[in-house]
Sequence to fold (670 residues):
Amino acid sequence: MYLYPQYGTQVIHVCAFTLGSLDSWGVNYATQSKCAPLGSTVDIGCSYTYPSYYTIKSTIWMKYDTSLDLGRHHFMYLGDRQNNCTLRIKYLSYGDTGEYKFRFETYANGWTAESAFMLYVTALWVVMSPAPVREGQNVTLTCSTTCPPHTNPTYIWYRNTQRVTGRRMTDSMLMLKPVSSGDSGSYSCAVKGHEAHPSPEVTLSVQYGPRNISATDSSSGYIVEGDSVTLTCSSDANPPVHTYTWYRKTGDKTAQVATGQNYSITNTSTQASGPYYCQAENEVGRKHSSDLLVNVYYAPRNTSASVSPSGNMTEGSSVNFTCSSDANPPVSDYTWYKSSGNETVLRGTGPHLKLTLASGDGGVYHCQALNEVGSQNSTGVEVIITGGTAQQILVFLLIAVAVALAVVLTLVIGIVCCRKKRTSTEVTRRTSDDGQMRLLREGMQDTEEDDSTHVYDEISAAARTSDQVISGGDPVDSGDLLDSGGDPVDSGGVLVDSGGDPVDSGGDPVDSGDLLDSGGDPVDSGGVLVDSGGDPVDSGGDQVDSGGDPVDSRGDLVDLGGDPVDSGGDQVDSGGDPVDSGGDLVDFGRDPMDSGGDRVDSGDPVYSGGDQVDSGDEDDVHYASVQFKAKNKDTAQDTLAVQPRKDEEQEKDVEYATVKFSSRSSAANM
Fold:
């Protein structure tokens, strides 16, 4: 075989040489026939013999006894004038089919081949079965030709211009068992030796149902509420998909929502969230994609703040705030603020805030929820601090209980004191009328005879003539100005009495020349509290002596309850007579007696002789008692005398006497 690049063809030389005797004549062909593809080039191999003493004059190729024009480009003589007689035919056409013979001539004679060479020009084409082809079927490709069988050509297969290997090939057939989509392509065949002239290509299209189905969205997975999004379904199928259908899952239910390769959702809302999938269908089958999750993002909403415990709080107590919100994606940051007036301050971060309340923690609290889409503030929850800590509350309660007990105790002491004073100041109604009058007359005579003796009449009466009184008991009318304590004041806020004259906090009159402390109470030049008369008093307005001990209006010593005592601290009644713990008069022998110094039994008055007073005379008798208080200058001790002084010497020892009158009957007090 020889290659002639200048012609772009391959030429097969069919040459066979029979050496035999050099004296023999003959023509031999490499093969007796050949089948070549249309348009190809073929070489007819040939050799000839003759006696060596002859010289070749000419060589001739004939087709059906007609000489060929070897000078033309279609036929080309490749032999010589010795032994080679090869003929090349280019650009084969169907007209080139036929019998060919070789003849050579010497100067003496010539020789024509006894047999002819048979050339067949044929076309090639591929037959595919079955058609169309679906994936999984068995496919046979056949290379068809008009060459007679005895030519026995060898066939070569090509797919997409690449030689096919690894497949079963028998004679002119290529078998694909089973066929797959990967076998699809353009197939052709060629006769071996004429690879440059293959058959026309046949396309093998293997049909298959939809596969590699996918659902995607145009937002790349980030969809914000109010945006628009387009869902797209793609698939690999042969033949192409003719129907796309969209479905949406809601719980365990599935509903069709659209058809078409694209599905658009405008103005998305949270209701559009959920899994979607598409189904692709062609003539071979149908298949659906995996789920595509449409996740619609939105800013925090329904943001609320709560506090536990609720209601009014106390200073020092612990409170817990909780912030909740609905958001997608979930809230990334919670921030707490407190508003008080026009001021708003940051108090903390996180969904929970715990505080131990201080005095400045009262106000309105709200939280802010934030995610990558936006933020929202909650409504406010108010925290009101009403008191101190639990320990402070306990102390306050203890103080309140103590104050209440003190008030009750004071009331009880006041009631007891009032009863004692009432008992000590009343004249005993059970004494003898004659004895009482005698004492009265003697006492009055002694008063007239001795001018040096100080006698003080103590007559008290109280009357209220107005329904309106101030806190001190003085009457006021509806036109008076009152302070917060209910006491009358003038237009400048200065305390006044019922006549409009200025007074101190104790109700004592003051003038513009009096010294007053910061509370408006009169003081002396040394800053010591004094009453309206200039006598020293304590902070409560009670009179005291120069030593600070409490005294009554006469200067007599009294105890803290206001009950009179002697210098030794022993209890006496308002008249200076000794009494027992129950307030009943006693003598120095601690025997009970009445205010006149007369003995009494278990409660009924008796005469000096011990005779009982008739109760029937009680309403008609005016009782009187005389009390004398004498100071013995020699012993510097107070003594109580129950008998009027009669002698001269006794008169010198008496410093003063007090006469008290009381009446049990309806007669006026004396």
